[in-house]
Amino acid sequence: MNILTYILSCLYFFLPAYFTNMTPPLTRRVNLFNFLDKEIDFGKKFLGQPIFGKHKSWRGAILGTLFGFLVALVQGYLYQFPAVQKISLLDYEQINIFLFGFLISAGAIFGDLLFAFIKRRLKMAPGARFIPFDQTNYVIGSAIFLTAIFKIGIMVWITLFILTFLLHIIINRIGYYLKLHCARW
Hints:
By secondary structure, this protein is mostly helical. The chain has seven helices and two strands. The chain has a two-stranded antiparallel ribbon.
């Protein structure tokens, strides 16, 4: 497998987590499912600081997990095509696609919450720079949730960590200059 195919394979594998991570900020902008717009930590504090913060909602977590799960199901369907098989790191016919979809998506949310928790312990405000973890927390969370069951190699995770970090910065810069995002990072 050449380097470009390998990069494409890593990105394709991680699509459910990318969609999971994109969903919470997008759901914040639309006026749907407002009944889920409740703080995950219910406004509770730990050691005098919010557990996660007001910006982490059930709406984002639930809809993010759901959208990522649906992307994984689409990947499972698309695996029947030879072109998709060539770039797939997983044999989607041999794995439990429901388990994969749930774990990669829930892992992405877990990573985001884990680093929000760490930022609050460090007394960092939501939106404050926490490089490289603001850009890659969902890679770490998905790795924690997936690796034991799906045996994804460490080089895939290192590649995804680096690619995600770079892509996140590029995409956020574009979003910032188009006034779609508040921070450059």
